[in-house]
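Archive entry: two folds, one per protein. Generate the first.
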Amino acid sequence: MSTNLITAEIVNPTEFPLERIRIQVAAFLKIPFRQIERVECWHHQIWVKFVEGRGKFISYRHLPIWVEQGIIAINNCRDRASLDELGEILRTEREWYDGHQESEALEKWREAWVKKSALLREEEERMKPIRDRIEAARKWQEAWGYVLGCCSESISLEELASEIKRQAATFADLPEAVAAVEAMWQQRWQELNQASA
């Protein structure tokens, strides 16, 4: 079965407000609101019970609320990976719309997707220097972990303390990284003192 907004659990039709669905169904069917006795939101379609006794199934995709749900899902994406994944799901949805000549929904989703993609790209560019800085601190921390692990004497470890302090000034904006290296130094100091005792 192909993945769509429901099977991907992005949209849950049971949470749709029934009165709103009823109004939108009446508008879609071009009938007076009072001719609809009730609507039931089933998992993949809407059951419409008419006052005169007959009933009919309608796809959620015929209603504006479905398009809105797609736009909400697009706007809720927090990164490129989730937006791209949603884009694949919306491509599956497109197959249904292509078969029903309802391109307005697709155009709204396309516009929302392009806008969100641009926002995420801007955010990535803005955050890149910060991510690069954090990565540099991580590598610095990792390198000191290796050096301290190789240190086998308390005297040589003491000599490294001043170099760590000097380099730590470079990462003063990332106190967690500095604290982690200092903690590694302290731990190695304790290990060496316990070994020599």
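Generate the second and append.
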Amino acid sequence: MKSYKDIDSYIANYPKETQKLLKELRIAIHKIVPKATETISYGIPTFDLNNHHLVHFAAYKHHIGFYPGAAGIAVFKKELAKYPTSKGTVQFQLDTPLPLALITKMVKFCVAQNVERYRGKNTL
């Protein structure tokens, strides 16, 4: 597995069209959670809130993986029906626009979970 020092170096490793999608996703997450901090965890871009992982994303040959956790997938199961999913991840194909409205709802859900779980450490 390649090691990255930050999200910029991670994104720079991919083709231009993939970089565009990764940047869109990154910007969307920052708009929703401006106080989230960026890191690389498990070798992929990660956003933390209250010193805990909020969401992750990653690029692959044919898709962008978005990782809102098992609850994030379960809650939006109907809206995610047209995308490949597993317990804690959804795949967005590289040849289609990112569903930013759905991603926004999922990130907001993850923020609410995080704030509830780590209420005493809230940094919002």
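Annotation attached to the second fold: The longest strand covers residues 52-59. The chain has a mean pLDDT of 94.
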